[in-house]
Amino acid sequence: MKPSFQTMFGGGAANKLEQHVARLLGEEKFLDALDELETAGVMLTIDGENFRYRAPENVLSEGLLDQLRQHNRQMIIVLRLAALAVNDTGSTRLHRAVVMGELAEVQRLIDNGARVNYRNRFGQSPFWLAVASGNLELVEALALAGGDPNVADLDGRTCLHQAVAQNNLRLAQFLLVNGAEVNRGDFFGHTPLCLAISRESGEMAALLHQFEASIQDEQNYTAKERDFLQLVLRILDSYGDELREHSLRVADVARFMALHIGLTDDEVKTVRLGGMLHDVGKVSLPDDIFDLADDDLTEEAAELLGSHPEDGHAALSNDACTVRWDFRPIILHHHEKWDGSGYPHGLAGDQIPLGAQLVALADYYDHLVTHRNYDPAIPPAQAIEHLLEQAGGHFSPSILAVLHEVQEEILVYSPGLK
Question: Domain holding 242: CATH number?
Answer without folding.
Answer: 1.10.3210.10
